[in-house]
């Protein structure tokens, strides 16, 4: 927004100059486009005042590429930090050191705002003065606009813009800028990464793989606290929900600690499933629970549904087939002091539903009274397969229905590549249950997993005619 306002002022200024210099309006418009970042271009120096640095050379083209490392790093596969050095020419103002702060505030939109770079440097010719670096993208032709000149006039500062050779190093560039300069031109820089404690987790694409170790080291350099970078090398195994990974840089310690919704979990990232992008979904489901409710977590992992539910004073039955997840679930229950409130199982999900879940429901549902406030929730977070488990609920219990209030609510997750993912998930759930859920379910879009692939949650109370098998007369 500020750039638009500045461009408007610049246009007004340049119209005056245009009348005097006979410059065509299209030329002014091209200049404006250049300043807005739409058309890259070098500075054109119209007036040389003085220089406080080394004499100009043939390479002194007033380069404004403050955000690009030296072009010779293109194709680098082994990180050489020294190769990123480059010198760029930037505009500066000479100011008495006692009014530097006032001047910087007056020209706060014109002074260089680049993180990691000093905007005030020593004046090699005058110890009583300082050089204030201006943003080269906002100073046309090394010449100040009328608003800036007026601000300097009030401070009795000469509006004379000079050149300064600014040296940039590896430390001055952001990770995205470094990788954009190194990787093949025109290709995606990175596919993003997830942070799991001290671990950065990548899903690199094929064209990025030759540069994977350099990418890993750059991420460690530029992200305090990250000491290990890994790349997924296989798809998630549907049985245990873990995957093969390669350590790209840093230490090989994959046992880490994470904090989600104010709860701490410890895990071995190489052996269990953990996705930090599901934090909001974990919180959403737990918020549906009330103290005293019962939660059956069929694919519990290390406990992101089970443990916060137990802390909310719910009774929890948590299960996971992966022995490693089971052990870390036990560990995290003790870590969060809820081990007495959670019954933990290491079973196949179908066996868990047919065993402990059926046993508990058979025992408790007949005891519910008309105004019973206890709700029963069954979470099935295994998106690749969970819908295939819904057929377990057909005639899971025997007897007369306890009433609509006591019917368990299922929260089942699934992936869909359909044009209408909500309709797709509902139809697949209906096929597994053998009944219609029209008007009896809700679908929630959890996240976009990949292009044209969504993760959804379908929630419904199990219909009584599905859940109960009535005894023969």
TrEMBL record:
GO BP annotations listed: mitochondrial tRNA methylation; tRNA N1-guanine methylation
Residue ranges of domain SAM-dependent methyltransferase TRM5/TYW2-type in the record: 193-464
GO CC terms of this entry: mitochondrial matrix
Matching PROSITE patterns: SAM_MT_TRM5_TYW2 (PS51684)
SUPFAM superfamilies documented for this protein: S-adenosyl-L-methionine-dependent methyltransferases (SSF53335)
Keywords: Cytoplasm, Methyltransferase, Mitochondrion, Nucleus, S-adenosyl-L-methionine, Transferase, tRNA processing
Domain of life: Eukaryota
Pfam families: TRM5-TYW2_MTfase, TYW2_N_2
Catalytic reactions of this protein: guanosine(37) in tRNA + S-adenosyl-L-methionine = N(1)-methylguanosine(37) in tRNA + S-adenosyl-L-homocysteine + H(+)
Gene Ontology molecular function terms on file: tRNA (guanine(37)-N1)-methyltransferase activity
Entry-linked CDD domains: AdoMet_MTases
Sequence similarity: Belongs to the class I-like SAM-binding methyltransferase superfamily. TRM5/TYW2 family.
Biological function: Involved in mitochondrial tRNA methylation. Specifically methylates the N1 position of guanosine-37 in various tRNAs. Methylation is not dependent on the nature of the nucleoside 5' of the target nucleoside. This is the first step in the biosynthesis of wybutosine (yW), a modified base adjacent to the anticodon of tRNAs and required for accurate decoding.
Family annotation (PANTHER family): TRNA (GUANINE(37)-N1)-METHYLTRANSFERASE, TRNA METHYLTRANSFERASE
Protein name: TRM5 methyltransferase
Naturally occurring in which organism (per UniProt): Piaya cayana (Common squirrel cuckoo)
Lineage, uppermost ranks: Eukaryota, Metazoa, Chordata, Craniata, Vertebrata
Gene assigned in the entry: Trmt5
């Amino acid at each position: 927004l500020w750039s638009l306002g500045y461009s408007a002022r610049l246009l007004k200024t340049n119209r005056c100059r245009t009348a005097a210099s006979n410059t065509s309006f299209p030329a002014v418009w091209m200049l404006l486009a250049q300043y807005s970042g739409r058309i890259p271009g070098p500075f054109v120096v119209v007036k040389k005042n003085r220089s406080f640095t080394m004499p100009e050379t043939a390479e002194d083209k007033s380069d404004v590429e403050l955000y690009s490392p030296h072009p010779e790093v293109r194709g680098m596969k082994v990180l050489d930090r020294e190769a990123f050095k480059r010198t760029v020419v930037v505009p500066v103002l000479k100011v008495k050191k006692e009014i530097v702060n006032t001047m910087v505030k007056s020209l706060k939109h014109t002074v260089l705002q680049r993180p990691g770079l000093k905007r005030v440097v020593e004046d090699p010719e005058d110890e009583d003065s300082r050089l204030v670096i201006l943003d080269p993208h906002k100073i046309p032709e090394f010449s100040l606009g009328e608003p800036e000149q007026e601000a300097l006039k009030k401070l009795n500062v000469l509006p004379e813009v000079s050149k300064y050779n600014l040296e940039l190093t590896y430390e001055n560039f952001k990770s995205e800028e470094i990788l954009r300069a190194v990787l093949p031109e025109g290709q995606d820089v990175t596919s993003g990464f997830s942070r799991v404690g001290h671990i950065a987790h990548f899903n690199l694409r094929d064209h990025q793989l030759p540069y994977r170790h350099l990418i890993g080291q750059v991420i460690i350099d530029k992200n305090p606290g990250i000491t290990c970078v890994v790349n997924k090398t296989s798809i998630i195994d549907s049985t245990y929900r873990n995957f093969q990974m390669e350590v790209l840089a840093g230490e090989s310690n994959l046992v880490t600690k994470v904090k989600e919704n104010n709860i701490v979990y410890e895990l071995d990232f190489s052996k269990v499933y953990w996705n930090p992008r599901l934090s909001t979904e974990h919180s959403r489901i737990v918020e549906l629970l009330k103290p005293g409710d019962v939660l059956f977590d069929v694919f519990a992992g290390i406990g992101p549904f089970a443990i916060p539910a137990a802390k909310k004073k719910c009774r929890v039955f948590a299960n996971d087939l992966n022995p490693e997840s089971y052990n870390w679930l036990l560990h995290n229950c003790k870590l969060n002091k809820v081990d007495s409130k959670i019954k933990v199982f290491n079973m196949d999900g179908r066996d868990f539903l047919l065993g402990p879940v059926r046993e508990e429901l058979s025992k408790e549902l007949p005891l519910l009274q008309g105004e019973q406030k206890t709700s029963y929730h069954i979470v099935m977070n295994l998106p690749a397969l969970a819908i295939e488990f819904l057929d377990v609920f057909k005639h899971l219990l025997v007897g007369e229905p306890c009433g609509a209030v006591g019917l368990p609510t299922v929260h089942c997750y699934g992936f869909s590549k359909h044009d209408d993912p909500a309709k797709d998930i509902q139809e697949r759930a209906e096929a597994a249950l053998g009944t219609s859920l029209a008007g009896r379910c809700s679908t929630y879009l959890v996240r976009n997993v990949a292009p044209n692939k969504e993760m959804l949650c379908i929630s419904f109370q199990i219909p009584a005619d599905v859940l109960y098998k009535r005894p023969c007369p």
